[in-house]
Amino acid sequence: MPHGLLTDTSRRLRELDVSSMFRSVVLLVIAIAGLVAGIGYGLLRWAGQIPDLASIELAYHVAIGITYVSLFLLLSARYANRPESIIEVFWSPVAVGIAFLVVGYFVSRFGQSDVVPQLVASSSIGFDLDSGRPLALASVFKMNILALLEALFCFLLLLRLKNLALIKRTMQSQRQWNWMIIAMVVAAATTFMKPPRFELNLYQSIALVPAVGLMMVNAFRTAWIVSLTFRDKLLVIALSVAILGILLSIGVMEEAIAFPNKLVPGSYTFLRHYSYPLAVFTNLCIVFGIIYFTTTILTVLFHLPTTSAYQQKVHEVAAIHSLTDLVGHVFDQSALFDTIAASPVRASLADAAWLVMVARDDHSSPQVVASHRIAPSRIERLVDSAALFEESRESGEPVVLSHAPADHRLDARPGDGIGSLVAVPLSARGETLGAIIATKEVSRGFEPEDVEALVVYGDQAALALDHAHLFEERVEKERLARELDIAREVQSKLLPQQLPEVPGLVLSARSVPAHEVGGDYYDFMDLGDGRLAFIIADVSGKGTSAAFYMAAMQGIFKSLSQAAASPRDFLVSANAAISQVLEKNTFISVLYGIIDARNERMRIARAGHCPVAAASLSGEAALWRSEGLGLGLDQTGELFARTIEERDHALQPGDVFVLYTDGLIESRNAAGDEYGYERLLAVLKQNRHEEAEGIRAVVLDDLDQFVEYGSYGDDTTVVVMKWHGNR
Amino acid sequence: MSNFSVGFRSSGGVTILDLNGELDAHTASELEAAIQKCKDDKLVQIVVNGDQLKYISSAGLGVFMAYIEEVRELGGDIKIASLQPKVFNVFDLLGFPLLFDIVDEEKEAVLKFENGASA
Q1: Dist. CA A247–CA A251, nearest whole Å
Q2: How far is A538 from chain B, CA to nearest CA, in Å?
Q3: Is residue A64 domain-shared with residue A84, that is, in the same domain?
Q4: Total structural domains in chain A?
Q5: In this complex, do A589 and B69 lie within 8 Å of one another by their Cβ atoms?
Q6: Interface of B with A in 60-119 (CB under 8 A)
Q7: How far B38 CA sits from the closest chain A CA (Å)?
Q8: What is the CATH number of the domain that holds A389?
Q9: Exposed/middle/buried for A387, CB within 10 Å: 0-12, 13-18, 19+?
């Protein structure tokens, strides 16, 4: 029967089903035609309408052979798939076997009174002893019905046994099974065209040997028994006994001399009259059934005691599997902890278990992070988990306490439910992350295999914990990198996006950040009346805090520049403002100036910053180093205000001023030499005729050339201002 | 990895810290720890000898700023001696000579403490 036709919507599957259904229908038609023809033949023989000709007999036996091969193929298509459960396999032979016995019981007794009892077998069931011709009408029907029923039962039995024997199949087992079927068919075929009264001779007996030999081989294919639960094993024994009973009732090689006591008297004799090969084949099936179910019962009996051990192994594997699964999916640390603590209990390795973990970063004592079947408060009260962890960490071996209450690290009395205890260290990459502590209520509860299983489990758990930690670290790292990116972006926006235009003055600026966010800042502000304020600043230190102070510096520049009358004023106010927010170890170096284009003057003051490098058209180049503390160094501001100097410079056309941060001066080449002031002044002097843009590019190029494979120490900022004169 | 170290010496009641190598953002914590230790041991007359100090960054300067106030409140001082010219220049640019006692010779600094103490 093609099943799944209605449920499968896939077209390809449907086509496949259609073709297999077509095949089934053809086989069914052949089988029914053959069966009907068989009855017809029997009836005609009974009526004496058919002469005992060898050719007619041959045609009959060939037809019967084809009929039953078709029936077998029909059934084998039905039972080709692996059974869903082992127990399912047993039910159909039991049901069909009982049905056969019940039907056979009545059918074989039907019309029995016609015949003379206690005669030789053949005549007693209504056949002519010599020709095998049916003597009664009832005999014809009985023969046909019983043959069909017994053949169907035997075919079903054989196919179901195939399902069992070929579980965990290999090429070899498949081959051995096929050879057995072939040997059975060959043995059956040796009786082709033999008269019903024919008894098996030496030749036929020899043909039976390979068939029976292969049956023995296939009867030991009972690997499916191992995975059964205890309950299923008991069920298998019961069902096997039932089937054995059915098979024995049918009667092996039953000669039926005194059959009235049999449930189905003379079934074998009927079969022989119907078709001798079919009779032999069904008998061989019954023999195989008896052998197979006998070995099954014995094997199950032998396996009964080891069932729990096997089931435990299954649990262990399942526990470890659940853990590896967890590594792939859950990065919730507490869920991982809970699973690790629960799995030994679920695997029946312990009655209660908990997980002890050391904190990664600090050296505080290990903590119980998860427990299963025992409350954390009870653990706290009864067991010194930290001491057990320490011992297992130092030895690298599990600590096994067979009599837990006797150990000094436990405050448990015999009634407290901790009879024995195992502490397994969890180590990954040479580091002990924690320990699993498992307990049983009984003393000596842990066998060496249990400890071994816990150790194996512990290795898996440690790996899972380590992976989870690595993952967490990575996420954290990525999060920081993302935040750093944002910080860098925000910071770059704090720098002027467009340089102001002042008649007679050309500006160029560039800031090259180092790896992290930095503390370099430069800016300009148009003060009106042809006046331009400029600033360059460098916050001490690096990183996020430097970036924040740089932002604060920008705010101070934007808010104070307009109001400050002079660079000195600005810096004094800025120092007062920024000192309130700066940390003690942080300061800001600043260079601040105002260019008055109308009056061609520049005033500049230095608060701890690198001195401005100035060059004149004539080729003089110098560092303007005026007195001045960095912002934040003098919190009171008194010393700051007292010491800061201001320089007033008359601008000459061709004057170039280079403002920069210490990243430029302190950048080092591979030999460890600093770029230095001298080299800056030399480059400036040589390129003083270039435009501001060009000078800035030359300075940075020269730095690149100098550094080569060295490193930029810090953020590097270069601002170039060139005065062309306002006419 | 670290190319910075701090050596401890004492001369009378004065503690001398010998700085060696490069003092930057990564190594600043070592000097911090050294000064913190002096402070914990109530040794607040500190001379920092920079004879072997090759480089100092702004973060390195920050360490001096972080402790000077506390040390002075405890009646001591941090005096800086024997700086190499290049390193001194970094101190000088920021105006540190206005805030700290920076001298050429270690002896001089120790003497200043002794005189100060006896005075």
Answers
A1: 7
A2: 9
A3: no
A4: 4
A5: no
A6: 61-63, 65-66, 69, 86, 93-96, 98-99
A7: 18
A8: 3.30.450.40
A9: middle
> Which of A289, A337, A347 is CA-nearest to residue A314?
A347
**A433 touches A466 (CB < 8 A):** yes
Residue from A538, A585, A636, A644 to probe the interface with B (highest B Cβ count within 10 Å): A585
Q: What is the pLDDT of residues B23-58, one digit of tens each?
A: 988 899 999 999 999 999 999 999 999 999 999 999
**Of the partner residues B59, B94, B98, the one whose CB lies closest to the CB of residue A589:** B94
Record: contact A610-B62, CB cut-off 8 A: no
A628 contact residues in B (CB cutoff 8 A): 95
Q: How many CB pairs under 8 A join A and B?
A: 63
10-residue stretch averages of pLDDT, chain A, 727 residues long:
47 67 91 92 85 84 92 88 80 89 78 47 61 79 87 92 86 92 92 80 86 92 84 91 87 46 66 87 91 93 82 74 63 82 85 89 79 91 90 91 89 84 91 92 86 87 86 88 84 91 93 78 93 95 84 94 94 94 93 95 96 95 95 92 95 96 89 91 95 95 85 82 88
Q: Which value does ipTM take for this structure?
A: 0.93
In chain B, residues with a C-beta closer than 8 Å to the C-beta of A716 are none
CA A53 to chain centre: 72
CB-CB under 8 Å, B96 with A587? no
Task: Report the distance separating Cα A283 and Cα A272, nearest Å.
Answer: 11
For residue A643, give its domain range: 495-723
Question: Would the CB atoms of B95 and A627 count as touching at under 8 Å?
Answer: yes
Contact predicate A350/A398, CB 8 Å: no
pLDDT at A51: 76
Burial of A337 (0-12, 13-18, 19+ CB in 10 A): buried
Beta-carbon separation of A540 and B59 below 8 A = yes
User: A524: distance to nearest CA of chain B, Å?
Assistant: 23
**Is residue A212 one of the residues assigned to a domain?**
yes
Q: Are residues A83 and A54 in the same domain?
A: no
pLDDT of residue A140: 85
| The total number of residues written for chain B in this structure | 119
A466 and A560 inside one domain: no
Q: Are residues A625 and A516 in the same domain?
A: yes
A chain contacts of residue B95, beta-carbon cutoff 8 Å: 608, 627-630, 633, 643
Which tokens go with A670? 């591979």
Does some domain include residue A479?
A: no
Pick A587's closest partner by Cβ from B57, B65, B69.
Answer: B65
CB A589 within 8 A of CB A533: no
**Chain B neighbors of A626, CB-CB under 8 A:** none
Closest CA to A109 of A236, A230, A243, A270: A270
Is A246 a member of any domain? Answer: yes
**Domains with residue ranges and CATH for chain B:** 4-77+86-113 (3.30.750.24)
Which structure tokens are listed for A387?
């001491």
- Domain contains A315: no
CA–CA dist A571, A557 (Å, integer): 10
Q: Which residue of A has its CA nearest to B55?
A: A666
- Pure H helices in A495-606: 543-560, 567-579
Residue B119: pLDDT above 60? no
Which residues of A fall below an 8 Å CB-CB distance to B? 538, 540-543, 583-587, 589, 608-611, 625, 627-630, 633-634, 639, 643, 662, 666, 674, 713-714
